[in-house]
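User: Sequence in, structure out. Go.
Assistant: Echoing your sequence, followed by the structure tokens.
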Amino acid sequence: MTEQQKLNLGNLFETTAAQAASDLHLVAGRHPTIRLDGSLAPLIKEPFLTPKDTEEYAFFLMSETQRARFLERGELDFSYTFRDKARFRINIYRERGFFAVAARFIPTRIKTLAELNLPLTLERFTRYSQGLFLIVGPTGHGKSSTLAALIDIINHTYNVHVITIEDPIEYLFVPDRAIVTQREVFEDTKNFSSALVHSLRQDPDVIMVGEMRDPETIATAITAAETGHLVFATLHTNSAAQTIDRIIDSFPAFQQNQIRAQLANILLGVLSQRLVPSAREGRLPVMELMIANHAIRNLIRENKSHQIDMTIATSYSEGMISLNRSLVALVKKGDISLSTAQMYSMDEQAMEKLLEE
């Protein structure tokens, strides 16, 4: 790779960071493209990328070990620090036989709940000594940032041992009152499930699981929460009710009643979030927050997850937030348009009633 190509790649990373874009895409036959406020924006002043460009960029970003792993698998995730200025979660893959790069920008400073426009009441979930709290939502809608904000509260508040298991490591925590040990799947450990099993022998108080991908990881996370640990994890689901169903359905039928009972006992809550276009600029989070009170635990135990949405909607006084209530609050403040709220609502009629209150 020539010095000029290294300079070009550095400029692209700098542009991504300077514009606070969420992603940078390097695909042969296209301009380098960034994602701003959820929409793709080609950098038209940059020349089209050739297959040679993308291949050389990809190989430059990978270590020798990573190159061997990529050539074996055809795709690879890893984190990359650019000149101590910014971090990126890199995915190298092939498309039509050519190399392509997707780079997710990770700010070096962990934002607070207030800076993320999230309710400060979420801090309550950092105070438990054990249990399971889940952050769910689509890819690219702020789950990692929310998770990092909660872990950072613990880091600056409690004398505990926090273990994170990530693929790859995204936000870097600077240990303060807590000891924070960060383990990267495939680099520091074999997989999520193995790392979780061994973490129980590493004297943790808090465990953060970047993603619960398989039944083994889910089962071990539940066991960790049962045995006196506070566990935070993410899932790619769209609501609290769907999250409960996804967890239960990932197990064979003969195990589901046991998992349902365990989950009812150890679940602290589920935050489902997504980022929606602001009426001004950027994106704002809307959310559904389910808190595992007595009623919710009974619904999980009795296999009545279809009633969870109604329980959330009628439990605002207990701190729960329905997606519609979150959308309506932003509409009334003029932060998002009514059309945006209608686009993201799962029940427009119920939302219209809330707007009339």
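User: And one key feature?
Assistant: The first strand starts at residue 23 and ends at 27.
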